[in-house]
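Before any further analysis, we paired sequence with structure tokens, yielding the entry below:
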Amino acid sequence: MVATRDAVEYVFPPPHPPDAIEWPGTPLGLSNTITRTKSRTSVYDKTIDSAPGKREALLNSALQWMVDHPGQTTAFDVVIHGIRVRAYTNSPHLIDFWRDNWFSPNDWQAATGVPPPERPAVTVLAFGGVADQPEAAYYSRAANMVIFFNTSYYGQLKSWVLGAVGRVLADEYGIHSLHCAGVELDGQGVIYIAPTGTGKSTSSYGLMQYPNTRFHSDDWVYVRYLYQTRDGRLVGPREIATPDGSVVRGYRCFRWLDEHPGVDAPLVALTLDNQDLSLRTSDLDVAAGPRAYAYISEKVFYLRTNLVENFPEAGIDLAHAKLENVPDVTPAFLATHQRLLDDLTRLVLESRDEATRRYFSELGPDEARRILARLYAFDNARAMLDVTRAFGRERVFTNPLEPLHVSALFLLKRDPSDEVVLERLSLNRFMERLLIGNTPYGTREIAYNNYRATDDISEKRYIQALEARAAQEDRPLYEVMLAAPDVPETLWEEFELFRTMYQAAACYDLNTILQRDPAVRDKMEAVRLTMKLIVKALRARPPQACYTLSTYRQFIDE
């Protein structure tokens, strides 16, 4: 199997046997599994509840496979931010990564001291070799069920499960699931929301080069919006029994509190340690506004191996991790990327980290160059990486119920046509950026999130109609959305939670284009300057800010 990057070949070994959906790649790390599907499945449907009988037919197909192949299914429960999820699969690769990625019920209790739920709220079925089904992925909100056939690419399974858990958390608990990365600096939390290819992981690892930092998340966080009670406790509203006899639950609580100041009603709130607490709405200091607290989702991070392109010292940890879809590289690839590979090899051989320096020195420069090339050649090659090995356990959040107080949020983009590098956003601009986020590849992601368990095709059509209406009426897009009577519930849910985020944290637009600055020598210098810009914004928190390629250095140096 041959693929290309910039018209230079890299190679995946062919499937063995020919009809396999997963097989061993050329050895590297603890394992290196090649999957036939390396991105989203050719068939995918998050709307099966709208087709009568479809969910039952898909479920029956999976169950029939289990009956016909006794003893070939593995089941394993995990806990994802307090939600128990049960997976059934016949894929050794999927169950291996599934076990490593998440907290088992025992892991959860050991890390948090909180007992896990007894019953699963989300179910996952993932089977290969199902002859009567295509390569496909399906989701049912009504059953909180994810069904995969004939694919063992872990990335899509992970993303759909996170989306399914996110719907439960938002609807029932008012907890916001975000495709983002997070780091703590000087006790302040910063999170990055970004489409693929704009620097989310790079910004996280870059900030860790500063002292007094702790690594939080690489890909996904859960955010709770909490109010302080008048006696000093922090709680998140999850259910309000209103005076008119209705019950407001989950994400809907925040707008109700904003629109009913001074109304006293029974309230069920969630404490920081995941316990329900009975209060009154009058017990909350709503006027002081919400605070945002982020929580980790993963026990071990599933991340792209091309991280080594900007942080070559991660190479030693990646080379000792479980890997997915790391290819072989051809002599042509090595020749074309010789300058970059020479720089990366020099950096690891001269690393200040003794273990990194010794490991790559023992390999020799040629083998070190080849391993680094393999790790970044294919954009979607992945690793299951324990970041405590990279940073030390004391510099990593490992308790899934330890909160990170979010002070700032950065929406990343990479738009060379825009001279603005850093801008503090108004609410309307913040929401518009989330509604019509463009990736560097020209595609759109609502809230920069391909993980959302929604009918994203119809949502995108709806947003395009909103855009047309906003242009016709010459009004901000978010204001048009607020006035619309037909907003899809899933879209309303997402943006009600983002509205609350805007109240809780400083929100910025960051354009990762500093390589366009003529004074910047290379990509690594651009990354270092971007980190300085982030740190300056986090520490200074300017109430208004708009810096361009010609003025951003003045802000850094102030």
In short: DSSP finds 18 helices and 30 strands in the chain.
